[in-house]
Amino acid sequence: SPENYSSLASAEETQADEEEADDLKPRRPFWRRLLYYNPCSYYLPRRYGVATLAFLGFCNVYALRVNLSVAIVAMSSDEFDWDSKMQGWILSSFFYGYIVTQIPGGWLANRFGGKKVFGYGMLTTSILAIVTPVLTRLGGAPVLVAIRVAQGLAEGVVFPAMHGVWSHWSPVHERSRLATIAFSGSYVGTVFSLVISGFLAEHVGYQSIFYFFGVFAFLWTILWLTNVGETPAEDKRISEEELNYIVTSIGTQDVVGYLNRVVEVLSLENFAENWGFYTLLTFLPRFMKDMFDMQLSQAGLISALPYMFMALVVQFAGFLADYFRATYMSTTLVRKLFTCGAFLSQTIFMLGAAYVSTPGWAIACITLSVGLGGFAWAGFSVNHLDIGPRYAGILMGISNTFATIPGMVSPTLAGKMLQNGTIDEWREVFSVSSTIYVIGAVGYGLLASGETQRWAESISTVDLTGATDSD
To answer: Is residue 174 pLDDT above 90, yes or no?
Structure first.
C-alpha cells in the first residue's frame, strides 16, 4: 500500500542519514584505535578481560616485591659490603611502608575509584624500581631502605583498591572467581620473579633485575589506566547486554559501614594466612639446605614450585566456590568450608614437612601446604565483598593492615629460633605457624558470615548511574 511504501522510504532515508552522520564523525588516530583494541572482546565477557589485566597487575605487584630477595645477594657480593643484619633490615623495610597505606588505600579507592588508585600505586612503584640501581649506588643502604619504604607505601593501596574495583565490576554470583583470577597473579609473579631474577643476576647483573621488572610494570600501568573503566558504565568496550547484567546483579550499594565482629575475624584470618606464607617465602630455600643439604640455586628453584601450584588452586577455588554458592550451599557455609579447610590442610602438611626424612616427601608436603592455602582465597579474602560490597576496599585495608604484621615479625622470630638450623628448631618454627593456622580456622568457623551485615544496610543508597535515593 502507499502507506507501507512511504514508511519504507522514510526508514531508508533515516538509515542513510545515520550512516552519513557516522561517516562525518572524526575517527580516532590509528595509535588510539590500536591502544583501545580489545582482542578478548570476541571471546570473553569484558569483566573477565578486566580480571585478566588485574592478574597481570598482581604479577607485577609481587615481582617487584620479591625480586630484591635475589638481587640483594648479588649486590652484597659484587658492590656493597652488607652483612646479614643489614640485608634483613633492607628486606623488611618494604613492610614498614606497606602497613601504613592499607586503610587509606581503601578510603582512596572509595573516594577516587579503585582503578585509579591501583594504577597510580603501580606507576609509582615501577618508577622507583627503575631508579633503584642508580640511587642505591649514590646513597648506599639508607637510600635503598628509603626506596623500599616508598614502594611499600605505593603498593599498600593495591589490594584494597582491587576490592574497590570488584565492588563495581563483579556480579554477586561471580565474586569468588573474578577476585581469585586477579589475586592468583601474586603467586605467578612470585615464581617468575624468583626464576628470572636469578638468571638476570647471574648473566646480566643485578641492575637488570630492577630495570626489567620496573619497565614491565610501567608498561602494564599504561595499559591498565587507558583500557579499563572505573565502572562498567564508564568502560568503552563493554557490551550493552553485559552492562545491564552487571548493573542488575549488583543493584544499589550501601554507603555506610563500621567495624564489627565479622571484620575483626577477617583481620585474624588475613594475619594467620600471611604468617605461614611469609615464613615459608623467606625461609624455604634455607629449610631445604639445612635439612637436605641442597645447593641454594636448586633450593630456590624448588621453592617456586609451591607458589605455582597455589596460583592454579586459587583460580580453581574461585570457580568452585561460585558453583557451590549457586547450587548447594549458602555463602556463609562456602566461605567457612574453604577457609577452615585450607587452614587445617596447611597445618597438617606443614607439620608433616618437618617430620619426613626425604627431600621428595618434604617438597610434596610443603607444596601441598602452600598450594591448598589457595582455597582460603575463595573464602576469607572474598568475604569483604559479601559483608559490605560498597566498602570492600576499606574493609580489605583494615584486615590487610593486620596481615602486614607477619611480614615484619615472622621472619625475625623464625631467624632467632633458627640459631643452628637443626630439625628441632625447624619443628618449632613450623609448630608456631601451624598453631596460628588452627586459631584462625577455629575463629573463622565460629564467627564468620557471608551475608551483608546489618550495619551495611543502606540509609542512603547509590546506584551505578550515580543517582541517590534516601529513605
So the answer is: no
Q: 293 and 211 in one domain?
A: no
CB 126 within 8 A of CB 217: yes
For residue 340, being part of any structural domain is answered with yes
More confident residue, 18 or 294: 294
Q: Which helix (H) or strand (E) holds 461?
A: strand 460-462
Regarding predicted confidence, which is higher, 16 or 98? 98
Phi and psi, residue 462, nearest 5°: -125, 125
Question: What is the Cα 114 distance to its own chain's centre?
Answer: 13
CA atoms within 13 A on the CB side of 279: 30
Is this model's pTM higher than 0.90 or not? no
* 223 and 269 fall within a common domain: no
Cα gap 434→432, rounded to integer Å: 5
Reported as type and span, the H/E element at residue 33 is helix 30-35
If we measure between CA atoms, which residue out of 61, 83, 318 comes closest to residue 192? 61
Q: Summarize pLDDT for 222-241 with one digit per residue, the tens.
A: 999 999 999 888 888 888 88
Domains of the chain: total: 2
Residue 28 dihedral angles phi and psi, to the nearest 5°: -65, 150
Number of residues written out for the chain: 471
Does the pLDDT value for residue 18 go beyond 70? no
